[in-house]
Amino acid sequence: MSSAGSRLKPLAAELLVEQGRDLYLAENGFTVDEYDQPRTQASVFGLRFSVPNTPKHRWAIMLHDLHHVATGYGTDLVGEGEISAWELRGGLGSLGLYVGSIVLGGALFGFLFAPRRVLRAFRSGGKGRTLFDRPDLSYDALMEMSVAQLRAELAIPGDGLNVIARELHSHAPARSEVL
């Protein structure tokens, strides 16, 4: 994997968001096609299960993945806690009850295992800017931005928020790679 996609640091700012998304999906064993499936896979403590992929969930997971690209947070339990806490700072109003409860649950789980990291992520939410509340930015327009531009839109520092290597969920194919 190139340095642009190394888990040792956030994704390179010069990448297009589409490239960053594709690197993120590949290292986690996800695909773009999964966005359109009736159910999506989730895992907690290594146990896999599927959840309904409602239209609101589909919309939110596509943007959630771009939040991972922008922030650099991982997909292990603590990383999902960090990204959920960061998203929580932006508010849950636009997410609805089902998706909002997933975000809140992720933040709470992460807080149980790494309270300092999750609190740091919540605080780094700053002005509470997430893509969930940016209907002015179409998904296609987001794909054409650079990661640097996406970070600027979200008031994230140019090198992302995560200060450690991205840890991956237990079923991620890139988890065993030495990066």
Topology:
Blueprint: H1 17-28, E1 39-44, E2 47-52, H2 55-71, H3 77-89, H4 96-113, H5 115-124, H6 139-144, H7 147-153
Antiparallel strand pairs: 1-2
Helix pairs in contact: 1-2, 3-4, 3-5, 4-5
Your description of this structure?
This protein is mainly alpha-helical. It has one domain (3-176). It has 7 helices and 2 strands. It has helices spanning 17-28, 55-71, 77-89, 96-113, 115-124, 139-144, 147-153; strands at residues 39-44, 47-52. A two-stranded antiparallel sheet has the order 1-2. Strand 1 and strand 2 form a beta hairpin. Helix 4 crosses helix 5 (115-124). The protein is globular. The termini are close together.
Helix content: 40-55%
Strand content: 5-15%
Spatial separation of the terminal alpha carbons: 7 Å
Work out the helix count: 7
Q: Give the neighbour order of strands across the main sheet.
A: 1-2
Radius of gyration: 15 Å
Largest sheet: 2 strands, antiparallel
Tell me, rounded to a whole number, the average pLDDT: 90
Number-wise, the strands total: 2
Q: What shape does the CA trace take?
A: globular
Q: Could you list the spans in which at least 5 consecutive residues all have pLDDT below 50?
A: none
Q: What structural category do the secondary elements indicate?
A: mainly alpha
Q: How many separate domains?
A: 1
Order of helices and strands: HEEHHHHHH
